Amino acid sequence: MDSSRTLLPKSLTGIQGLDEITGGGLPTGRPTLVCGGAGCGKTLLAMEFLVRGATQFNEPGVFMAFEETAEELIQNVASLGFDLETLIAQNQLALDFVYIERSEIEETGEFDLEGLFIRLGYAIDSIGAKRVVLDTVESLFAGLPNPLILRAELRRLFRWLKSKGITAIITGERGDGLLTRQGLEEYVSDCVIVLDHRVSNLVSTRRLRVVKYRGSTHGANEYPFLIDEDGISILPITSVGLQHVASTERVSSGIPRLDAMLSDAGYYRGSSILVSGTAGTGKSSLAGHFADAACRRGERVLYFAFEESASQIIRNLRSVGIDLEPWTQQELLQFQATRPTFTGLEMHLTIMHKLINRFQPRIVIVDPLNSFISADNETEVKAMLMRLVDFLKTRQMTGFFTSLTSGGGPLDHTDTAISSLIDTWLLLLAIEAGGERNRALSILKSRGMTHSNQTREFLMTTHGVELCDVYVGPSGVLTGSARLAQEAKERAAALTRQQEIERQQHELERKRTLVDAQITALRNEFAAQEAEILALIESQQQRETTLTQERVAMAHSRKADDATRAGGRP
Amino acid sequence: MTTPAPPTEPEMWTLRLYVAGQTPKSIAAFANLKVICEEHLAGRYRIEVIDLLENPQLARSDQILAIPTLVRKLPEPVRKIIGDLSNTERVLVGLDLQPCA
To answer: Do B69 and A108 touch (CB under 8 A)?
Structure first.
């Protein structure tokens, strides 16, 4: 019979992530020990195992409580959305509160726990249970005398559960140096899960680890988990590979000049973009532009803010002409604003994963990325960011991160930790010169595209961010007023040159007019002389004529023969 | 009972012994109980033996874990004694019979 069975049969728990870590759930028909300190979620995990079993896998379950009454349990898990009363009414679940009060019990000789067996057996048979939870069985040791008998009986109980083919969760309180106070791990040796509730830097994180899983491989890491209104969610986030597909689709940055710098198209879809810069260089404004552009395309954007509240971001971006409010109303844009100190790093990541999975955005903005970094956790932050970036890439989501670099140090220093994960890295600089600070933007790298290598001046106007060319001249790179002054100077010089040309043209014109005038005068003078000479000539001719006539008249009067007529008269 | 009870212990005792089948421990417990009652409560006790194998639902409603369990239902308050009742001393303490005997 055993030869045909290659793999250990497993029962799905239905708890988010736990089935992935354990490779399919808890061992079917065997008891699993869940142990941990107070308040780390043992009871909730066990209860969710039963509720999911009943609702999703049609496996009814019995919850035997040694610490809380049935009423208390029903109330406590109602906050997780579990309606135990309905399940009980549908015979999907049985709750049995075992009341033990040491002071009311006197031991008078040998005994066994057959009563417990009968109780449990009856509960199992009455609803056909496949799953059983004993929470916390160690209470027996506090309530009943004679640990030797109890140990023997517990051993018998676990064997008995196995023989009935019941998949069971036994919870145990963490003891000194042992997983459980009474060493239950000796009896329940098939699968042991340890829950932990640790506080580091005033921040508490719940973690889960599968210590042992006989006959099966399992994720051995510590996984943070979250208890919220959906129950428990564990995210096995360390197991992300590098198999994501790279998209060639481009998405606009929301700033035309910036798109132009990024080979005229913008960022790649599914890439990771980092904007780093010192305080007040406009990182969030770039994020706002990107979010606005995405929402205009009808894409969903999830904005994780770790320094400002959602309404503060909306107000501030409105001052540069970006109105995100309509997008939040249309549920295209969702803000998630929390303080970095709100929970631990892992928990932040877990919450992010959960929200991303629920909202399914195309673009995820984290502003700023490095507010998590405190003095001693840089490596953890690095690991966390790597997982976040990988997670986004496998889902083809574009990640837009801002990073606040501290002043003084080299600008690209603090981000070297994650630079290998980043595809497009924009650097925002504050250039301080001439008594003012000006912003400049340059592209430090952009994988897979030709991009401008020039620095642009970055202006925040009431109608959005604008990029303009910086002045590069003999006196170096100028921005702000210096650039304006330089531009004014150049304009003045151009004006002067223009005026000079005009002046010379005028001069030429004037000369031409002068020459023309002279020509006219000369011509007039000549005309006058000509007229005078002509008149003189005429008067002389006149006189000549008169003389001739006078001579003829004289001759006539003297009756001189006409030399001309003498020949005619004989 | 209509006969007037002695002034010290006027009540009728109701004792309930929970067993699970005819196990040696159960048989021993019943025998031990019988002896103790005859000695200290002659004529004013009643023993009910409940076999949980026949009435398993009673294990839950009466909060029984250990077998055998002896429950003093009357007089109040309810007391529970577990084990085969072989330690007479402790049975008497458990039943609160010692000082008056």
So the answer is: no
